[in-house]
Every structure is written in structure tokens, then in C-alpha cells.
Amino acid sequence: MISQFFILSQRGDKIVFRDYRGDVPKGSTEIFFRKVKFWKEDGEEEAPPIFNVDGVNYFHVKVVGLLFVATTRANVSPSLILELLQRIARIIKDYLGILSEESLRKNFVLVYELLDEVIDFGYVQTTSTEVLKSYVFNEPIVVDAARFPALGPASIFMQGTKRMPGTAVTKSVVANEPGGRKREEIFIDIIEKISVTFSSSVGLWDKRFGPVITISTKKLRGCLCLPFPLAMLIQISMPILPLQGYILTSEIDGTIQMKSYLSGNPEIRLALNEDVTIGRSGSSAYGYSSAGSGPVILDDCNFHESVHLDTFDLDRTLSLVPPDGEFPVMNYRMTQEFKPPFRINALIEEAGALKAEVILKIRAEFPSSATANTILVQMPVPSYTTRVSFELEPGAVGQTTDFKEANKRLEWSLKKIVGGAEHTLRAKLTFSQESHGNLTKEAGPVSMNFTIPMYNVSRLQVKYLQIAKKSKAYNPYRWVRYVTQANSYVARI
Amino acid sequence: MAPPAHQTQRSPSPSQPSGRSEVSDLKLQLRQLAGSRAPGADDSKRELFKKVISYMTIGIDVSSVFSEMVMCSATSDIVLKKMCYLYVGNYAKNNPDLALLTINFLQRDCKDQDPMIRGLALRSLCSLRVANLVEYLVGPLGSGLKDGSAYVRMVAAVGVLKLYHISASTCIDADFPAMLKHLMLNDRDTQVVANCLSALREIWSSEASLSEEASKELDGLLSKPLIYYLLNRIREFSEWAQCLVLELVAKYVPSDSNEIFDIMNLLEDRLQHANSAVVLATIKLFMQLTLSMTDVHQQVYERIKAPLITLVSTGSPEQSYAVLSHLHLLVMRAPMLFSSDYKHFYCHYNEPSYVKKLKLEMLTAVANENNTYEIVTELCEYVANVDIPIARESIRAVGKIALQQYDVNAIVDRLLQFLEMEKDYVTAETLVLVKDLLRKYPQWSHDCIAVVGNISSKNVHEPKAKAALIWMLGEYAQDMVDAPYILESFIENWEEEDSAEVRLHLLTATMKCFFRRPPETQKALGAALAAGIADFHQDVHDRALFYYRLLQHNISTAERVVNPPKQAVSVFADTQSSEIKDRIFDEFNSLSVLYQKPSFMFTDKEHRGPFAFSDERGNLSIGVESADNVVPAQRVEANDKDLLLSTSEKEESGTTVNNGAAYSAPLYDAASAPLVALDTQPVAQALQAGLAIDDLLGLNLTTPAASAPAPPPLKLNAKAALDPGTFQQKWRQLSISMSQEFSVSPQGVAALTTPQTLLRHMQGHSIHCIASGGQAPNFKYFFFAQKAEDTSTFLVECIINTSSCKVQMKIKADDQSASQAFSDLFQFALSKFGMP
Known about the structure:
The complex is a heterodimer of chains A (493) and B (836).
Chain A: E1 4-8, E2 14-19, H1 28-37, E3 50-53, E4 56-63, E5 66-72, H2 78-96, H3 101-106, H4 108-118, E6 119-120, E7 123-124, H5 129-133, H6 166-169, E8 185-198, E9 202-204, E10 213-215, H7 230-235, E11 247-260, E12 268-272, E13 277-278, E14 297-298, E15 300-303, E16 307-308, H8 312-315, E17 317-320, E18 325-334, E19 342-350, E20 355-364, E21 371-380, E22 385-392, E23 399-404, E24 409-418, E25 422-431, E26 446-453, E27 462-467, E28 477-491
Parallel strand pairs in A: 8-28, 13-14
Antiparallel strand pairs in A: 1-2, 1-5, 3-4, 4-5, 6-7, 8-11, 9-10, 11-18, 12-17, 12-27, 15-18, 16-17, 19-20, 20-25, 21-24, 21-26, 22-25, 23-24, 26-28
Chain B: H1 4-9, H2 17-34, H3 41-58, H4 66-72, H5 78-91, H6 96-109, H7 115-126, H8 135-145, H9 150-166, H10 168-173, H11 176-186, H12 190-207, H13 212-220, H14 224-232, H15 239-249, H16 257-267, H17 276-289, H18 294-314, H19 317-333, H20 353-366, H21 372-383, H22 388-404, H23 409-420, H24 424-440, H25 445-452, H26 463-475, H27 483-492, H28 500-516, H29 518-533, H30 538-553, H31 555-562, H32 578-586, H33 591-595, H34 630-642, H35 672-680, H36 683-692, H37 724-733, E1 738-743, H38 746-751, H39 755-763, E2 768-775, E3 778-786, E4 793-801, E5 806-813, H40 819-832
Antiparallel strand pairs in B: 1-5, 2-3, 3-4, 4-5
Helix pairs in contact in B: 2-3, 2-4, 3-5, 5-7, 6-7, 7-8, 7-9, 8-9, 9-12, 11-12, 12-13, 15-17, 17-18, 18-19, 19-20, 20-22, 21-22, 21-23, 22-24, 23-24, 24-26, 26-28, 27-28, 27-29, 28-29, 28-30, 29-30, 30-31
């Protein structure tokens, strides 16, 4: 059970505040905000989402820069409270269309109305958007969608592609379209966040962890990258191995997200690839067997409450009566090998006294039909770097570079990269002191952020989307969209 | 970003000038609108109400418009009504007189045709939190519980709980708990059922200490029929209510293994739920159910691994942190079950440090012969990380792995490579680790010393690192050519050395160096002793003086004292006792797991949740966290191991080898730990106990005088039998029915020279001992007894302190109603001990 719920702005202003049980002293919002703001004196560490001050437990989640907070004195289930906070944020977004400080301020009475029904005396009553509909009477005041980044992964569809009706993503579940009629439509988004770590240089080792020979990339420049595991190389005991690029770890965390604006909640059938299998037979994760073909093997997955799996084993079909609003139909996790969309080559080497050169090369290894956007490549450089001069490739368009003095980091951003393309950045560093010798230990790793719409790496697909028909004329819009995003995409140097 | 000072300026204060003028303005406008029935009046009211609520939110006191708000609330506009209810709920508590104004219209609304209005009004009525208005609640609540609309019943069920918190007696007198119970068992709507369950749980657990009936009812919530009734409907419940049910079922004790498997089969698909709260509640249930079935328990671990990892990687960072903390707990309990999943615990560069720290600990725990190379390689990458705290943690992790592995060859190489990185913080952390490594693996000294000798002492600034370096200089003085001279340079800077720890080490190291290389060190030793004796720090002063006198007395004795042959340390002490860990495990799926502390350490009793394990066994080891107390804690823990109570056989037992090195924690009297516990007892009890010392019979004064001389009437089975496994299971599952502290006669204590003497005596009274242990002055026993007429058993934990003549006793019983009788019998038996 929770005692209080409140939403604070980034500056710590109370936007909504509701006390349910009256057993937490006044001033809890200030205590909370101060604690979060000044968690450690050096400000380097972030406050954990749950902490205890004077016997009061504070829970918070950050959504679009807003802090959703609950307090309690009881020893409750932490996951329950955090799930609830996240759910409240989603319900509010379902209602307001857009979750932002402005939309909240304009609609705070509606939010109070929702909160009244969601929680009573600290106990959760309902979080179902359609149940809430019958209890909630305020009409949302819609704020201008274009000016605000929308909540959640679906917002990425706003950026590049013109194929999607932009407003739909930010449509409220209750507000009517101009003209009084609601458009019947349903969105299925397959969102995959990928984490890849590429190794740096290649080392040799004997079985008893004997002397480890580390070969720096410096000596091996110019060789090609090797996409197969190191273990094989060791068996054939090659004395010196080519540089960079084998995959240390890779994982896909996917979600099939649904947002339904169908009236009358008809039943839906969602068919996935027939070759999807769940659960690896062996206990060993990260096997590198087949790449690019063969069945899609998910390590594990979970489903939304409303999903029926009666025929899933038979034909890989999920049937459900979708509730209103946005919700994840299925979450899945996959460590099966896949082709990373980008290859990163990074190099740092000394170039005279107090100088070094960095070469960053990225190659898009996905089909040219797809285009990645909002790419950002970052690389920490030695702490004694004072100046950096960049050299972009000739004719570069939509690329910017920056040296972040405060945290000694190179930043290279690219508006878009078409599949198959390759881009290079050279940077000259000037140091304030001699380096200690091993520059690679002082710089890196290179990390990368990107979004690739209409492309997914797991090959999991929605084969068809069937909506139980009410009449012959009933043919709602169906949108199935794919997107790949970087979660932790790192290359060591 | 605005500093928080900005906040305090806007802190709630009725006298705030800007707020006041605006509020009085509002008041005026509201008054004008109050009686207006003009078209559009409702819209203007809405705007004004919004303003009032928004002031209320940011903390401006708008209670002065109370009467105007109430006047305006006579409306059919439901949005207005809701705003008004919200307002009234917020201010009624502090303005009881004004709250009276609202009763009328709320009561009227409670009879409205629209169930929604009825529900809303009832909710607001119960939220007023005004004690002298409770009489107005009883009627509407009573009819609310019988309302035809599930919404109203749902509100009414929570309303009863609200009433209970305002006035418990009114709630009980109106017989609402019984009505809730009826509703819980019969209502079609699952949310009504869930609310009844929440309310009853809270009401009965807080009544349980006062009334026997309530505590029976509380136990009744765990009865088989109710549990099955809830389980069979579990899919109809909302995901939140499912958590509630699962939490309840986790306390249920199935009668046999078939029942356990039935429940697990029924709930297995809950592990595939997208809501992490449901999954964790299910896991907790599975864990509790299989606690005494080792094989199945292990299968449960295997089964829950994948869902947990999925939740960690798919949720928001906050959610995944909460799940990861639970995964962390499981990994720590059974590291080898997760040793093949180590890659899931690799850190992502963009994760917050609270997540990285957990992952580093998990990586350390799961390292074994097969994965150590990969794990250490990965950790070494983090050492070069820009995030300095994580770099430090990573070095420590490498060190810990080295300390727990047999084959440390390569790891030592890595550590030595760190020293070559020439980053101050890396060097500092590494030195501390190399020192620990040398204490465990003296055979590595040759390689390490060669590298350590190259470190310039000028680059070492942190006290811990300095102390480590100095220790090595002293310990390996014969292998390090420059040792006396480096020590000498440290001694020259004695005045600038702020850390007493470093100065203490410097004294000892110089002494050791002196015994090995007297001519080179003599001068330095003289200077060190002189500086030490002049030191303002008491410990430093004393140690210097002690060494000085020791040397004066006899040099070879001094050498034996300061530099005796050492045994290598086999295992370093664990800082948390396994008892604490078990308690945290018992409180799975709660904040205890996140804070890594059992609930009694951070929550007051009333908030621990009605089903928390309420025994205070943890008192024994309250002070365990601080490293200084490690020795006594270990001893207590070792005792508990004898007593079969620890379930964590899988963990390495944390036995300390006291190697006599200067680093070992000071040896405390074993009594010090329980003394802490005694201090926490309420004064009243201590007082009673003090009086009781005078009582020759040693009987507790709380015992009714009449029953004192004769043995109480309860008949026990003289040949009762209980195997340790069953005892352990029961002890975990039953809650404490009685906890007492009393005194024993000095004669009794005098006879208690060894634990065994008491056992025979108690057996004579049909109370059997299942385990005992401890050393004077603290003895700990676990007894059990069985009723003669049926098989219901009593379990007793009894701690006797022979120096204070006090006994702490906790009774758990199948039949809780008989615990008082049993307690009398037990105390009677104990009082006879040592009597001729």
C-alpha cells in the first residue's frame, strides 16, 4: 500500500500531489527532491529508484523528465510500486495523448480524477483504461503534439517516416477527432533494443590462464575484422590474429507493443513467424550457431494479461481482446547470433609528442532499403586531452562533431546512414602531458546510439493481424511497424 | 536547474502574502457564484475550483474558502463534485467543524440513484479523517457493503478500513469485519473480494495483539478453503490483486507435497506474466513452498532464471533494478546455479551505477574455474572505465575473485598490471588487494613484491593504500631492498600523516623491519618510537610505548610478539551473518531485498506488513554489519549452524581464522552482542524482570499468582518426537505466538555449567531439546513439546544469559490458544532447575 503519490517537474515543482493515508509527514516532496538532486556530494552517482529517509520509503520512476513518486512506510513489494508508477504514467498518457509537463499542468484535474479511481487508501483498484473511462468525466485538453516528444518507443515513428499518421501516436483514447467520429485503427509496433559489445584487440591464452599476450590494435591495422569466435582461432593457434570485431556479447530485447483505437474491443489474432521457438534447449546462452537463416529462437518471453496462448504452440498465434490504450503484448529476449547493423572500427595512436590521432569508422551492414537516423557516436579520450581538431570525410552532409571538454569525450553525430554506407571521422588530439604509454587503456570504449525504422534484426515478424469482423464494411486501419534501436552498442579499443 | 532554496520559498504557509490576496479573491468569486443557477455558472465554477485545487497542490493553504466550496458543491455536475470532494478530503482533518458542513450533502449523495455518485460520496465521507464524525459513517458504510453495485461495495470495503484507522472501536462495534468476511467469501466481483482481503488483513493483524478472536481470524485467512477459493479464481483478479493473493498464499502451509505441486502447476503460467510484481510474488511463493524439498527447490531456481533475466532486460531501468536486486539475492544464495549465465551480468556502459554495483557483485559470486578468465577479462575492461567509482569496484571484484579461486596465477598478473597503469586510484585499490592476497597466498610474495617495490610511495595517497604498502614493507622487509629507507621517508613525514591507521602500521612495520635488518633500521625505529610516543592519538601513543617497553624488556620476546610466524588466512570473514541473509530471503519480494537488510532494521514494527515474520530473532546479531563485530557475530552464527536453523548450506560457512595478525578485529567478549539486544527491550519489561530476581521461585510476576505454585494443567506427551527438518520448517512457517523475557533464580544459573545439564532436567517435564549451543554466559536452546491429547506442538527458542540471570523465550505453537498455558508450564519447569 502506498501513502502518497506525486508528480514533480524537473525543477522539483509539485504538479500533482495526492495523500492517501496521511501517515507520511508533510514536506515529503521536498525531502525527496533534495535527496534525488544531491544523492552523492560529487553528483556523479544517480539516486537509486528506491531509498529510505527516516523510515519513509520513496519510490520513483522518471518518465519524459518528470518524476513519478510514491511514498510508503510499509515494507511493500518494490516491483509492485514501480510497475504501478509506470502504469500510472501510461494511463495518463493514454488519456492526454501526450505526456509532458505542459499537458499535465493543463489537465491536472483530470489526473486527480484518474488517481482517485486508480488508488484508494493506498491500495490499487484498477489500472484498466477502459474501466477508468466510465468513471472519469473530465475531457482532456489536448496540447499541440508537434512541439513535444511523445512518450515511449512509439515516438520514434514521428521522426523519419512519412508513412505513419503522426497524430495517431499521440491521440488520446477518449478525445474525439474533429468531426466527432473516431478513426478505427490499431498499431502494432515491434521494437527491438539491441546490445552488442565488440571486443578490442585479440589476446592469446593458455588453458590455465597462463601469460596473457595482448596484441594492441596498433600493430594490426589494416587487417579485416573477423566475425567468428575466438575459440576457433585458438585451436588452430595462430600466432598473431587480426584486429577487432568479434562479438563478445549480443542481446535483443524486444517488445510487441499494441495501441488500439478499435471501438467495441473486438478479438484480435496476431500470427508470428511459424519457425519461432522459445527457450534454448541447452543451458548455455550465447551459442553462435547459425546466423542469418534458420529458425528464430527466443531465449524467453512473457505476455500481457489479456493474451491467450491456446493455439500458440500449434500455429504461433496470439489471440487477445486488446484493452484500450498502449500496452506490451509480448516481451522477448534473444541471444541467438544476429548480424549487427553496424561495424565500428576505432583506433587511437600516438602522433608525435603530446599528440594522438583517432580514427573512427562505421559501416552500416543492413540492406540499403533501410536508413538509420539520429546516429550518435561517442568516445572518451584521455583525461589530459586539451584540444581536438576534427576532420570529416569530404562531402559529408548532416554530420557534426564536438569535443565535450567537461567529460573529455568526442561526439560525432550523423543525421542518417543509408544501409551499406561507410563513414569515417579523423580527430587530432592535443595533450597537456605525456601519455603513460598505453593509450588504449586511457580512451574508449566507443559507444553508439541509433534508430533504424522499418528494420528488425531478430527476423521475428507479425505475419498477419486478424480482427474479428463486426460487419463486412468494417475494415479498420492496421499499422504494423518495426524498429531497431541501440541500447548498449559498444566497441572496445 | 533551480536550487531547492526556491522550493522552500514556496513552502506551505498560510501567511504567504501573494497567496493570501489571491485566495481572498477566490473566496469572493466563489461566494458570488454559490447560489447562481445562471447558464454557464458551472463552467465558471469549474475554473475557480481548478484554481483552488492547483493552489492546494503547490501547498498554498486554501482552507479559508471551505464554506464557499461547500456552498458551491450543490450541483449536478459530477466533475465539480469530484473536485469538491478532493478539496474537502484534504482539509477536513484539520477543520473538523467545517467538515461537519459537508456531512449533509455527502450523506445525501450516498443515497443517489447513480451508483457512481453513491460510491464517490461514500469514499469522500470515509476520507474525512475526523474522529467525531465517525457516527455518520456507520450507516452509509453498512448500506454500501450491501449495495447492488460492485463499485459501491468496492469503495465501502476500503471505507471500513478507513473507519478502522479513524476509530477502531467504532469499526469493531459495528461488526464490520464480519460483514467484510462474508463479502470476501461470497462476492462475485473480484476487486470487492480483494479489497475485503486487504482490509481484513490490516484490521485483524493490528487487532491480533489485543484480541484472541482477531488473531484466530487472521490465521483463518490462511485456511485451506479460503486459499483454494482464492487460487481457483486467481485469473479473474486484476494483476495487482493477484499479487495480494500470491502474497497471502506464500504464508500458507500445505499439508503434503501433492498440494505443493498442485499449487505450483496452477500458478506456473504466472511466471510468464509481463508484470514483474506478479512474477516476483509467484517466485516467492514457489520458494517458500519448496523450502524443505531440496531438489525441487533447485528446479525452481532453474525455472525462474529465464523469466527474471527477461524482466531485467525488458523493463524500464527502475523496474529492472528492482528485479535485478532479487536476482542478485538468488545469485548470492546459489552462485553455482548461475555460473553459466555470467554474461547476463556484464555491465552496459550506460547503466546507472546502482545497477553496475549489483552486477559486479554477481559476477564476483558466480566466478568459477570455467568462467573466471572471461569474467576477469571483462572486469579489467571496467577498470579503465571513465566512471571512477565503478573502476574501483571492479578492481575490488577482481581481488575478491582472486581470493576465492584456487588458481590465482593469471589474476595476480592482472592485478600487477593495474599497478602499471599509473592511475592513483587504481594503484590505491590494487595495493589493498595485493596485501589481502599476500595474507592468503604468501607463496605469491615473490612476484608481488617485485612489482610493489617499484611503486613510488609518493604516488600513494589514500590511507588504506598507504597502510597496505607499509604492511608489505614490514612483512617482506628482507625481500625489498629499499624497505628500511622507504619506511624512513614515511617516518620523516610523520607530522604530515593524518591517518592514525597509517601511523599504527608504520610503527609495526618498522618494528618488523628492525628484526630482520637491524643495522639499517635502528635509526628509523628510534625516530618512529619517539614520534609515536609523542603522538596525540591515544592508540598510536600506546602502541609506541608498548613497543618501546617490550624492546627494553627483551628483544627476542619482542620479536615473538610483534613478528610471530603467521598462518595464511583461509577465508576472510563475511560481513553479513547467514542468519541475516536468511531473514532477507524470508522477506523476498519486499524492500528488505533492495536495502539488503531485514525489515526490522529499517521499518517500525507496525509497518512491516501483516504477514512479515514477526519474530525478533535478529536481535541477536543486530550489530553484525560493522566489520569490527565480526568475531562475536561469527560465533553466534556458528552456534546457529549447530542449531540447524540456517538454510543456506550452499553458502560457504563464514568461519574466521583468527590469525593473530594486526588486522584482526578486536576480540570482543561474546556477551557484547546479546547486551545490545537487552538494551532494546522495553523498560517496563526490564523492570519486571528486575523485580522478579527477588522472587525465590524465579517466576515471572506476570503469571497469575494462583497458578504459580502448582504445575499448570496442560498435559504434555512425555515421548514426543520431532525430527530436525520438521522443526526447522515449522519454525519458519509459524509466527510467534508469545515472546517473553523473565529471570531465573541464581541457583538455577549456577547449575547451568554446560548446556547439557538443562536438557535432562527439561526432559523430566516432557519438554525436549532439539538443539542447543553457546558458551557462557549465553546459552541458546531450541525446545519442542507435544500436547498429550493431540499432536499439536510447541516450539520454543530460549536464550539464557547466566551473568544477568535473564531468559528470553519465544514460543511458536500450532495451537496458539494454548501458548499461555505452555509458557506457564515451561517457566515452571525452568524455575525448578537447580533446586534440590
